[in-house]
Amino acid sequence: MDKDMGEKTLSRKVAIVPGAIRGIGLEIARELGREGAHLVLPTYDWLDDLPFMKAALDELGVRYVEFHADLREEREARNVVEVAKEEFGRIDILINNIERGGWPVVHGPYTEEQWRLEWETTVDAKWHLFKNALPHLKKTCGCVINITSIAGLVGRSGPAGLVFNDGYSAANRAVSALTEQWAREGAPEVRVNEIQLGFFETRHGPATRGWGILSDEERQAILDHTLVRRVGRPQEVAKAVSFLVKECPFMTGATLRLDGGYLLGGERVPPMPEGVVEPGEPTFGGTIPPGG
Fold it and tell me: If 77 and its partner were Cys, which of 37, 51, 128, 272 is the partner (CB 3.0–4.6 Å)?
């Protein structure tokens, strides 16, 4: 297995991937692991899924270290970086896949506790990881990918208004601003980009509690608002991450929107009308004098 892994594109690169215990985070970890990366996987909740995560990575023969960390606490984020250095000696990739967002149809109006939880998890935790990892990423000319949501653009409006709450939207908008700022701070050694997600199977989609609360009409309205008429798959995010990590050395401070066209609103383009202008008829400004 070591020989096989040594032939991979990301052989012996070291990636920090929070939120890898399930869903999109797990698919990202598997994709990077298949390419030979060693993984540092801080986990916090959904611990019932931990055996499945380990089995999935063990099956691939991936080298990884998993441990509990509350990344809202700066000292614990610092420890994640220290563990990466102790275990693998370097840091090449930071996938900032950590967030918290309560659906309006699930949680209702905000409480002070929920507001702070979403901000601290979605913004503060990413900041803690970035600022502690940056000096090490500069040494390896590494890269950072912030995983965010189109909630930062659409807010609590339209069909998404039952899914994206105000604080979650504000937090994601803040991370988008940080993506650009961190790209400046990381340059020229470190690239910092963002993947902005729409509705996915395991994030704001069918595999979540909130999706089941929506009526058939409300779910269909979300799909009708999405140009490709479906939700995304976790594997599609993992492929986008791989693309940014491996194939985009000239891209930094940029956002890759992966939303199936939700932001465009799902409107179709009508057929082009025949028009009423006759052949030879002046089309603008009336008649033209001879020789004009």
Answer: 128
